[in-house]
Specification:
By secondary structure, the chain is of the alpha/beta class. The protein is built from ten helices and twelve strands. Helix 7 crosses helix 8. The two termini are 27 Å apart. The chain binds glutamic acid.
């Protein structure tokens, strides 16, 4: 059965771009007689607010979207991500990273080379190279740390991978573009890449629909699926809404929140028409 999801982060009010993405996922599921799920991606406690969760549900319902089952809140499932991390750790694929942003930046400047990936400069591997005794000592003294994926080892273990996007066809996975991605942060014991991958599998999502700004992230998700023996969904990365001048809507998001449009007297049908191709 086709299962799609809409997975907003409750860091603000939904805007027209979100409406487009939610309707896209919803309609794909309903057209196939499948399920449409809502997932609240609230792992970042510092930026997420409960009132935005309420607003998300209210705005989607006002648009006429109905989701199947209770929404999954990522913050309530940290144990699922911890289990996945432990599996990757048992395969020798993670290492603790004690670096601050400033230390990473300083190392990049010092080395004079700064390969860039889709999310910015690649991690220069400082903590990957730490002697085991030093790592043990830092852990023993309780030094705060995140966990990174050892990308070279991970891609070697997984072997060649590909994935399928409805717009672009078969894509050869290139997770190495991202370098040693963060899988757990000092302050949050998971990361976007890990939580999304685990949840899409646990929720039995078969078709991941989302904006094409997240296209490259799928390289990492495909790798994590392979390493964690998870089922592989299909993907449909959709275009991002732009205003008539071609600017991404996110830039004018405040003026175009669903709440603001509703308060201005627009009907749900009118808002739906605003996001139609
Ligand atoms: N939570 C992400 C966002 O709001 C979307 C994640 C996804 O669809 O995979 O941008």
């Amino acid at each position: 059965m086709t299962t799609t999801r809409f997975a907003p982060s409750p860091t603000g009010l939904l805007h027209l771009g979100h409406a487009f993405s939610a309707i896209f996922a919803h309609d794909a599921a309903r057209a196939a007689g499948g399920r449409f799920l809502l997932r609240i991606e609230d792992i970042d406690a510092g930026r997420c607010r409960p009132e935005f969760i309420t607003a998300i549900e209210r705005d989607l319902a006002w648009l006429g979207l109905r989701w199947d089952g209770p929404p999954r809140r990522q913050s309530a499932h940290m144990d699922d991500y911890a289990k996945a991390l432990a599996r990757l750790g048992a395969r020798g694929l993670t290492y603790p990273c004690f670096c601050s942003r400033a230390e990473i930046q300083a190392e990049i400047e010092r080395s004079g080379v700064a390969p860039h990936g889709p999310d910015g400069p690649l991690y220069p591997g400082i903590c990957r190279a730490l002697p085991a005794a030093e790592v043990a000592a830092l852990l023993a003294e309780g030094r705060p740390h995140g966990l990174r994926l050892d990308m070279a080892k991970a891609t070697a273990q997984a072997g060649p991978l590909s994935w399928s996007d409805a717009e672009r066809g078969t894509i050869v996975a290139q997770p190495e573009l991202f370098g040693d991605v963060v899988l757990a942060r000092k302050e949050t014991p998971t990361s976007y890449h890990l939580a999304v991958t685990v949840d899409d599998a646990l929720q039995q999502v078969t078709l991941v629909t989302r904006g094409e700004d997240l296209f490259a992230a799928t390289h990492v998700h495909r790798l994590l699926q392979a390493l964690l023996d998870l089922p592989v969904p299909a993907w449909h990365h959709h275009r991002l809404l732009t205003d008539p001048a071609g600017r991404r809507l996110a830039k004018r998001a405040r003026a175009l929140t669903i709440a603001a449009l509703r308060d201005a007297g627009h009907s749900p049908d009118e808002v739906r028409r605003m996001v139609e191709p």
